[in-house]
Design brief:
The structure is a homodimer of 126-residue chains.
Chain A lengths: L3 H8 L3 H9 L7 E2 L5 E2 L2 H15 L4 H12 L5 H48 L1
Antiparallel strand pairs in A: 1-2
Chain B binds a DNA duplex (30 and 30 nucleotides) through α2.
Chain lengths: 126, 126
DNA sequence: ATATACCTTGAAGTTTACTCTAAGTCAATA
DNA sequence: TATTGACTTAGAGTAAACTTCAAGGTATAT
């Protein structure tokens, strides 16, 4: 079992964010100690790893919450989760390709600016 | 010269968003017709292309506004803009690599779920 | 000429994802 | 035992990027 502080260190999320995610049903049902403090299990840590994967590939918290709900429903939602993840994967790939295309344009601009700068400094030194 | 409607079609931005970007100094100084309607020049269109590149690679509107301000100041800001774009480029590449790593984990999960689903359906058919 | 559709402005409202505050509880240490 | 620091909650506040609204002006087709 991990304290909220330990989970912060492992996930990079703040305690505020962890409590927020709990409220938003991304990871509800975190158990409490006798004193009412959060205790995260290894299973919770795995769920958090998944949550971070989905979040860092651009899924909204709402969609993550729905995915985690399906996960809690067990094996009968395996197909649905599989399809959902596959669709997400394709959307992310498309997004990355789009980003690459825009980045290529930025790279062109950098090259163009570099050349223009060279000319500009040459003129100035004359 | 293009009307706001034409610019929407070409850029995929809404008229609301174009007016918002003007207010936020991403592209101020758009000229007006006699009746007060916006008229976008070819130069404005080029600026908008740059704005979209930066936005779609994840730059904040605030940072874009600063970049566009430098652009309006002319050639003496070439070096600064060059460096700024280069830094942005590297940040985007790092972000894309990070995304790729998270996506690889998602792919692993999809494979794992697919296998688990196969087993599950096999058991059910028995 | 008038109806309709589109444009203008400033300002208020929305969504997402936090982030902070206040008031109080719990745990560990001097 | 007292104090320090971390934890709890509900709820308010924030920042970014739109998005909508209200009130009015403009352009054009009938």
């Amino acid at each position: 079992m991990y304290t909220i502080h330990e989970v912060c260190e492992r996930t990079g999320l703040t305690a505020h964010t962890l409590r927020y995610y709990e409220k938003e049903k991304l990871l509800p049902n975190v158990s409490r100690s006798a004193g009412g403090f959060r205790q995260y299990s290894d299973e919770d840590m795995e769920s958090l790893a998944m949550i971070c994967c989905l979040k860092n590939t651009g899924m909204s918290l709402q969609d993550i919450a729905r995915f985690m709900e399906l996960a809690r429903e067990g094996d009968q939602t395996l197909r649905e989760r599989c399809e959902l993840l596959e669709r997400h994967r394709e959307a992310v790939l498309a997004r990355m390709e789009e980003m690459q295309r825009y980045l290529d344009k930025v790279t062109c601009k950098v090259d163009y600016f570099t050349e223009k700068l060279r000319e500009f400094e040459e003129n100035r030194s004359k």
